[in-house]
Amino acid sequence: MALLTHVLACLFGIGSWIAINGMWVELPLVVHEIPERWYLPSYLTVIIQLANIGPLFITLMHCFKPRALDERPVIYTIVVMGVVATFLLAFLWKHTLVVGGAVHSVALLSLSFLLSVVDCTSSVTFLPFMMRLQPQYLTSYFVGEGLSGLIPALVALIQGVGMVQCKNATANANVSMENSTWGSTGELEAHYQQANFSAQVFFLFLSVMMIVCLGAFLMLNHLPAVAKEHKRERYLDDATHREKADVSLSLQNSAPEQKPMLDASEGQVKAPRSSFGKGTYSRAQLVFIFVVLAWVNALTNAVLPSVQSYSCLPYGNQAYHLATTMAAMANPVACFIAMFVPNRSLVLMVVLTVTGTGFGAYIMAMAALSPCPLLVHHDMGAALVVITWVVFVLTLSYVKVIIGVILRDEGHSALVWCGAVVQLGSMLGALLMFPLVSIYGLFKSGDPCNTKCPK
Question: Tens digit of pLDDT for each residue in 199-224?
Fold first, then answer.
């Protein structure tokens, strides 16, 4: 029964971010058939930030009426919403409407907002629900949360985006192109080969995964064998129980909870260095940690995703698809590493932040140089940009885990501030990049066939 509970916790965690992660990896197939084209990534970035109204409401309810909100009805609501939204997305994502004199993919953008609300709200409801189970099942939940990025990336790799074929725009179908590159007019058209299966099938797959998440949640609540694994004490009824939940968040903690303030007679207790949390860190260190947290989330959740297409597309559609999927894989890989090698070193945090920022600077530079970035005519350029994206996500994802471990040990209030700073950093990054990309058009996308750059 313990193995069953581990499996159900993993399947439950998969539903946390699989919808939005799936949207990102499916962009190479979607953008060619909608009016927004490659502006869609910047639109999605802003939509995801607007969806933070969900976790904001939940957080305010926990702050002002901690006993009034039961997360279980909220989870049922958002998971069912995710099932319905992904199912509708499979059939409506191509539909457009005229808004403000321009054609827009209203259905795609609206359903993406609903899915963003689902995934963002899962961050503040799924984990509190897992506190109802024994602490060891949190490990399986985090594995599932990591797989929510890995699974759609693997499916997208199997799906493929096809190779781009450059064909003469004026040539007849019976004219051989073997000895001609540019044809009579010198103009080529990009023809994208069909994927192994359509975007509709992919979105239906996401809907099935949300149904699996819903089924796992139902069994975690109502299956008698799993009910035995629930905690025996009441759940977060008062401040004492809330502190117990904070302790249970530690994946490495298997010993009975300790109360240093009550056991002061057993050993020397260090004076708190600040009034924040348990006082482990000074005020200057805490400010620095939160600044790094905001910076890292701004880069990974908003700034660089907004220009991913500009940094990769000049090297080819395949390079863009590989960068998108491999970067999605790097996030859960970082979580797996951190699960077995937890670290609280501020020095390592700084080193990884500087390293990740350096790789991010290279990505931003290539996006700014688009459609003619460095090594655009060489396979080395494509390989370099894919590797850069993977290392960028891997290093900064591990930084976020380090900070999460640090703040988790500081208690409940520290985790509340952690969530607030994560959303603040992401929001500031999105507000910065949206006008630069979508309004002022500072970044130019390359054409895989007609872009001519000096060699």
Answer: 899 999 999 999 999 999 999 988 88
What rounded mean pLDDT belongs to the chain?
78
Residue 279 CB neighbours (<10 A) = 13
Q: Which two tokens stand for residue 422?
A: 């994560």
Tokens 């409401």 sit at which residue?
57
CA distance 353 to 362: 14
- Token pair for 57: 């409401």
Would you state the pLDDT for residue 258? Answer: 43
The DSSP secondary structure of 28-46, one letter per residue, reads HHHGGGSTTGGGHHHHHHH
The three-state secondary structure class of 265 is helix
Percent of the chain with pLDDT over 70: 75
Joined tokens for residue 418: 């952690």
Cα 64 from Cα 455, distance rounded (Å): 62
Report DSSP state, residue 133. Answer: B
**In 10 A of CB 378, how many CB atoms?**
12
pLDDT of residue 452: 72
Which residue intervals of 93-182 are DSSP H helices?
106-122, 126-130, 137-159
The pLDDT confidence band at residue 407, using thresholds 50, 70 and 90, is: confident
At 44, the pLDDT band (50, 70, 90 cuts) reads: confident
For CA atoms 60, 64, 66, 67, the dihedral sign is: negative
Residue 107 — φ and ψ, nearest 5°? -65, -45
Residues 149/17, Cβ–Cβ less than 8 Å: yes
> Residues with Cβ < 8 Å from 28, sequence gap 6 or more?
161, 317, 320, 321, 324
Phi/psi of residue 201, nearest 5 degrees: -65, -40
Burial of 288 (0-12, 13-18, 19+ CB in 10 A): middle
Secondary structure (3-state) at 190: strand
Specify the pLDDT at position 183: 41
